[in-house]
């Protein structure tokens, strides 16, 4: 493709060479007829005029064209605007403008004028002509081809003050193949430049503007369209627009300006069946293209001529809001009412006495600008005589530009002068009575440094805050992401926060954005929730769904992807109204702009935000941030104050919030975007490591005393471990340390699978970097052995513990505390394996050494005694075990407290010892106490709580087995045992899984208990039948006299039977049918069973006590 382009341009170049070689006599002396070599006619040329002209029509050619050839058909001697058009338009003066539009040149040097230079030259030449013949107030219509259209757009967007009348009197524009969104001409120009190198020079500024992603061109277009929309609200100043586009491709180049680039949304678009160069050349008035163009011109001229007075300058209230009314705006009624109250725009009395200001603040993308637009249109509707001005405050340049626009629009005296101070003059004019009533909206005022003086010397103060007018006849509305700016600019008033939408508002916004009603409310609510009910994110999602024709459910699947996938979705470009051209549209880019502002304003705040992004987003502890500040800011005084200021700025931008406990929450999507920003900044591993350091400093090992802290910080530790880390030895060992501590917490909680994975990873890192026999490696191995033992993988645990014990003996000695810990752990494993003799020997040795070294009442000594008593019980020596248990329990209660887990474990072991001797009464009492306290202290799902539940259920089941079959209390006790087994089985399956040995054991005894209950009920029925037969007496409730509860000994009906009686299976299983359960006095229930009389005579009732 490149070589063919070279051949095309070489052919063209050769033709130009032949032209240059022609004798001077062969060329016309008319500058418009002469083919350009080194001279170009520049300026305005009159093609047609008459005495009755009342409209000027100006033709502007495009790239590589000129004011003559662009409009002349191949076989014509004159351009059609000179020969054909005057016949159709009798009272129009026809002008043509010529300029050097070449982008490349060989031999000749191409003009280096930018489009903006051509635009200014156009206005200057046209203004001079109209001033000279006194036609300055004549309406103008432009007909522009290709690049000429961009020149005109820029001329209107950047008109200097003394040339403004040209823009003010423009009433129509015809665009012929104008590249509003870029053109392939840019690529062609680049290829030409590369192919000729130094021989052929290129006007790179023009080529750059023609590219599809040109920010300059996009901003100019946005500003021009805003101007058109603003003027369309007043018939006296409205500008008609029609866009023509080429239908045929240019040979070898294709469509130079495709349709999507040549048209403007919302304006008339007409096709011409020609290629880009030929679409401006008409040889006959019968050609369709000529009829289309002349028809538009005739229609516009007729409108102008029907009522010329409408098109004269009129003094009206100004409405300079650069956005159309958003028909998709929903909700925010409460905020709008607050604005109406604070600004009191309809309160005549307040307008005469006080100046009012209000500020809207909130997270970028939350809809502050949309609320301001909605308010401005409401005010325009209710107060026709109030001028409304809009100032973009994203930069000082745009702020000044907005003031300059006000000066021009309102014809403020002196605005045409070269030394005009727009900021001061506009402020003074607005504060005068000449301006009338007004409201000014300052949008995106985020940068404190722009608006607040940075020096104490007021004579050098050029901060923009001083130029905001302050008078009773006007109000000011500010939108900002920075609450601090809003507070300053409203002179201390608390800004109005624009928060996330509610469910109704967000689903309504999505339905309008999706433009079809096939999605379920549940899908829309789920999407709203995933996007945090943030309006800009919802509009962006709707645009993506609509443009890619996918259902909401598929978009939700994309959101379920990785963090990078989510941020990529939040970075998708889309069209949305109510955002300035220099304001990023995607949510992610909007927030990254705020990050940069924070970083510039207060770098430490940017660091804190970066650090917080690697913790869990909720309940981030202040001490984590203080630890970072002390580590990084040791040279500075008052770290606390520095942190308060940093967090204050982050809260002002709504990136973080303070919760009641003093911790901080971070917006979920903001956290994801912050991490992406750090990736682009190249500082991901820096702040991920700082987060891990903070967690390492404060996350304890999972012991009873620290378990609350472990639980609170668990989410932060897990989040920090997921962060990308550098592979340095120091960082890896830091990770291993936190893995070890988390594993200990999971072991304590009975989450054995999770504990094992973390412990194995920690061991792998420490083994690689520190060796297998290193103390830190052995400590994690010991925890892993405990985890294996609790999973009944006893052989694996034994092998590991023997190795640990031998290593400690070799490296630390027989009586080192770590050696003793290893022996004690091995003894527990041996006991679980059914080797009580070996376990007893180890336990006695450990106990004796600990007594000698640590003392008899040291917690570790007491644990050894407790373990020893268990091995004695396993050897059927309950008396010895009970004695040791009672002593240990008494000491633990006194030293550690009755609710310490060690004391609770001893209490449970004592109960099991008593159970083995048949003392069910004290056993039940102890086990009830243990279960109640473990639930309260450790939680309902803790392994020790579940063990205490099963032990108590075992005791109740045993008690039920020994009850008299004729006693109904037997059913109650067994029923209570069955209910407790069921609850224990459910919780164990939930915590440990269905395959764990403890879970399977509970289900096994549950089945035994169910069979026992079935048998007990049958035996009770049989005993009751036998009793009736012997007495030959039928009992009914009719014969019972109820006096007082103290005179009637009736045991309350067990809750288990009462609940079972509601189930039809009760009658199928047990025979009798439940008729009712009535409250006899208020304190008991009676179960009435309808039982057949075995004599076959009648059916009676039985009262079971």
From TrEMBL:
Residues 1006-1033 form a coiled coil. The keyword Iron does not apply. It holds the Pfam family TPR_10. Residues 13-24 have a biased composition (Basic and acidic residues). It comes from the Eukaryota. The keyword Coiled coil applies. InterPro entries: AB_hydrolase_fold (IPR029058), NLR-like (IPR053137), P-loop_NTPase (IPR027417), TPR-like_helical_dom_sf (IPR011990). Residues 1-33 are annotated as: Disordered. Keywords: Coiled coil. NCBIfam families: FxSxx_TPR. This is Uncharacterized protein. It comes from Gibberella zeae (Wheat head blight fungus).
């Amino acid at each position: 493709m490149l070589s063919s382009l070279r051949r095309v341009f070489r052919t063209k170049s050769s033709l130009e060479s032949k032209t240059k070689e022609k004798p001077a006599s062969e060329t016309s002396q008319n500058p418009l007829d002469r083919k350009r070599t080194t001279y170009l006619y520049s300026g305005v040329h009159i093609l047609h005029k008459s005495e009755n002209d009342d409209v000027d029509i100006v033709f502007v050619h495009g790239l590589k064209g000129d004011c003559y050839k662009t409009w002349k058909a191949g076989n014509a001697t004159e351009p059609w605007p000179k020969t054909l058009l005057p016949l159709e338009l009798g009272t129009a003066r026809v002008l043509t403008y010529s300029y050097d539009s070449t982008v490349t040149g060989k031999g000749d040097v191409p003009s280096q004028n930018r489009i903006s230079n051509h635009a200014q030259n156009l206005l200057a030449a046209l203004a001079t002509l109209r001033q000279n013949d006194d036609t300055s107030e004549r309406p103008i219509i432009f007909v522009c081809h290709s690049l000429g259209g961009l020149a005109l757009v820029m001329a209107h967007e950047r008109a200097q003050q003394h040339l403004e009348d040209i823009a003010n009197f423009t009433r129509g524009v015809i665009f012929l193949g104008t590249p509003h969104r870029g053109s392939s001409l840019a690529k062609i120009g680049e290829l030409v430049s590369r192919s000729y190198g130094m021989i052929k020079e290129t006007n790179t500024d023009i080529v750059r503007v023609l590219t599809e992603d040109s920010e300059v061109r996009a901003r100019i277009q946005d500003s021009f369209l805003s101007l058109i929309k603003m003027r369309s609200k007043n018939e006296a100043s409205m500008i008609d627009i029609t866009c023509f586009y080429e239908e045929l491709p240019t040979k070898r180049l294709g469509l130079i300006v495709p349709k999507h680039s040549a048209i403007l949304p919302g304006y008339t678009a007409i096709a011409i069946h020609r290629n880009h160069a030929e679409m401006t050349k008409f040889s006959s008035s019968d050609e369709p293209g000529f009829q289309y163009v002349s028809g538009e011109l005739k229609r516009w001229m007729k409108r102008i001529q029907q009522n010329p007075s409408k098109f004269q300058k009129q003094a009206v209230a100004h409405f300079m809001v650069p956005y159309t009314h958003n028909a998709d705006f929903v909700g925010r009624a409460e905020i709008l009412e607050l604005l109406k109250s604070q600004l009191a725009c309809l309160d005549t009395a307040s307008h005469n006495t006080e100046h009012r200001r209000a500020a809207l603040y909130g997270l970028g993308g939350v809809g502050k600008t949309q609320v301001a637009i909605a308010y401005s249109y409401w005010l325009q509707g209710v107060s026709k005589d109030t001028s409304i001005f809009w100032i973009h405050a994203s930069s000082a340049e745009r702020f000044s530009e907005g003031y300059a626009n006000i000066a021009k629009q309102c014809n403020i005296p002196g605005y045409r002068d070269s030394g005009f101070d727009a900021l001061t003059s506009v402020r003074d004019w607005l504060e005068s009575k000449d301006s009338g009533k007004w409201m000014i909206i300052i949008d995106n005022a985020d940068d404190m440094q722009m608006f607040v003086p940075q020096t104490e010397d007021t004579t050098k103060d050029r901060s923009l805050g001083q130029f905001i007018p302050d008078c009773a006849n006007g109000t000011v509305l500010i939108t900002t992401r920075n609450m601090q700016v809003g507070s300053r600019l409203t002179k201390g008033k608390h800004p109005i926060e624009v928060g996330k939408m509610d469910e109704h508002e967000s689903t309504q916004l999505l339905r309008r954005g999706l433009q079809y009603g096939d999605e379920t409310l549940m899908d829309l609510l789920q999407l709203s929730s995933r996007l945090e009910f943030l309006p800009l994110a919802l509009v962006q999602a709707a645009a993506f769904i609509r443009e890619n024709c996918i259902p909401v459910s598929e978009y939700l699947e994309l959101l379920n992807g990785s963090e990078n996938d989510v941020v990529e979705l939040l970075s998708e470009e889309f069209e949305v109204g109510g955002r300035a051209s220099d304001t990023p549209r995607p949510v992610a880019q909007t927030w990254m702009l705020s990050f940069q502002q924070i970083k510039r304003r207060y770098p430490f705040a940017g660091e804190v935000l970066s650090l917080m992004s690697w913790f869990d987003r909720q309940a981030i502890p202040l001490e984590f941030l203080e630890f970072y500040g002390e580590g990084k800011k040791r040279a500075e005084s008052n770290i606390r104050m520095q942190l308060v200021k940093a967090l204050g700025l982050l809260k002002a931008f709504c990136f973080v919030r303070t919760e009641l406990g003093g911790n901080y929450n971070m917006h979920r999507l903001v956290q994801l975007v912050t991490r992406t920003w750090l990736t682009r900044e190249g500082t991901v591993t820096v702040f991920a490591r700082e987060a891990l350091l903070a967690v390492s400093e404060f996350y304890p090992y999972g012991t009873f005393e620290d378990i609350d802290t472990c639980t609170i910080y668990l989410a932060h530790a897990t989040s920090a471990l997921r962060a990308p880390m550098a592979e340095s030895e120091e960082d890896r060992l830091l990770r291993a340390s936190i893995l070890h501590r988390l594993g200990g917490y999971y072991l304590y909680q009975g989450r054995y699978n999770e504990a094992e994975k973390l412990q194995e990873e920690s061991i792998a890192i420490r083994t690689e970097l520190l060796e297998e026999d290193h103390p830190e490696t052995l400590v994690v191995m010991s925890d892993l052995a405990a985890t294996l033992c609790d999973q009944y993988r006893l052989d694996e645990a034994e092998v590991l513990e023997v190795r640990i014990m031998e290593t400690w003996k070799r490296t630390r000695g027989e009586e080192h505390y770590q050696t003793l810990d290893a022996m004690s752990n091995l003894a527990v494993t041996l006991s679980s394996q059914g080797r009580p003799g070996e376990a007893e020997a180890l336990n006695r040795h450990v106990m004796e050494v600990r007594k000698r070294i640590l003392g008899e009442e040291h917690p570790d000594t007491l644990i050894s005694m407790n373990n020893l008593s268990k091995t004695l019980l396993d050897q059927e020596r309950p008396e010895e075990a009970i004695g040791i248990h009672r002593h240990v329990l008494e000491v633990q209660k006194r030293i550690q407290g009755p609710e310490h887990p060690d004391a609770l474990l001893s209490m449970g072991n004592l109960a099991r010892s008593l159970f083995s001797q048949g003392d069910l009464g004290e056993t039940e009492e102890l086990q009830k106490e243990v279960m109640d306290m473990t639930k309260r202290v450790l939680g309902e799902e803790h392994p020790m709580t579940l063990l205490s539940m099963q032990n108590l259920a075992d005791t109740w089941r045993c008690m039920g087995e020994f009850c008299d079959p004729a006693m109904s209390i037997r059913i109650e006790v067994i029923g209570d045992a069955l209910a407790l087994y069921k609850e224990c089985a459910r919780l164990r399956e939930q915590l440990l899984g269905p395959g764990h040995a403890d879970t399977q054991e509970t289900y096994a005894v549950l089945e035994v208990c169910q069979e026992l209950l079935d048998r007990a009920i049958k035996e009770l029925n049989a005993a009751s039948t036998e009793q009736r037969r012997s007495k030959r007496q039928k009992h009914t409730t009719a014969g019972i006299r109820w006096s007082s509860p103290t005179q009637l000994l009736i045991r309350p009906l067990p809750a288990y039977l009462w609940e079972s009686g509601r189930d039809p299976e009760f009658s199928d299983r047990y025979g009798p049918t439940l008729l009712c359960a009535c409250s006899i006095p208020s304190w008991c229930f009676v179960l009435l069973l309808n039982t057949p009389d075995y004599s076959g005579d009648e059916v009676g009732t039985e009262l079971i006590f």
